[in-house]
Amino acid sequence: MPITEELTKLGNTVRRLNDGADELVREIQAIEATLRDLALPFDYLHPRPLEETARVGPGGKRVIEVVYLGVMPCRGRRRLAIKMVKILESKAAVASQSGGAVMPLLDAPRGLLHAAAELLGEVVRGISKQLDELAEQVDRRRSAAREAHDVLSRSSASASGVRRRLGEDG
């Protein structure tokens, strides 16, 4: 194949890659808009890391960097974001974990954004499960409050009847 055909093919592939990346960003923006409309009452962090790297740091200690995907507060609102955590490990295998840095998913490097796209379905299912559990918890609490109110109402009615009888007798 002549070089001009190869260059044309290369150009088409680059265009397809860029168009696909732009569409991915639009889809993530749409997911974020939906999440914003839902006004979730909690944060969610996917349990499996997007990326994990290890290196030897100062003093021969391993430094493990782990990146997670989730929905969490970032720049003033809850949004799709990545959380980067560094774990410092001593030779005695004692690890200490810092709080981590959070950045909006849409600001993440392209490789992390694409890796995150693979987990978005799992994140949505995890959020849905958590919402279902929260709704069930509220239903149980509402039923308990209703039952307590009913018991109190019956007790109050009984007490009113006793007071009336006592007033008539007295």
Describe the structure.
This protein has 170 residues and is an alpha+beta fold. The chain has a domain at 3-119. Helix content is 56%, strand content 24%. The protein has 2 helices and 6 strands. The protein has helices at residues 3-38, 110-169, and strands at 44-45, 51-56, 62-74, 77-89, 95-97, 101-104. Strands 1, 2, 3, 4, 5 and 6 form a 6-stranded antiparallel β-sheet that branches. Strand 3 (62-74) and strand 4 (77-89) form a beta hairpin. The longest helix is centred in the last third of the chain and has 60 residues, at 110-169. The protein is elongated, with a radius of gyration of 28 Å.
Topology summary:
Blueprint: H1 3-38, E1 44-45, E2 51-56, E3 62-74, E4 77-89, E5 95-97, E6 101-104, H2 110-169
Antiparallel strand pairs: 1-3, 2-3, 3-4, 4-5, 4-6
Ends apart, CA distance between termini: 113 Å
Inertia-based shape:
elongated
Query: What amount of the residues lies in strands?
Result: 15-25%
Structural class: alpha+beta
Q: Tally the helices: what do you get? A: 2
Mean pLDDT: 87
Give a quick rundown of the structure.
With 170 residues, this protein is an alpha+beta fold. Helices cover 56% and strands 24% of the residues. The N and C termini lie far apart (113 Å).
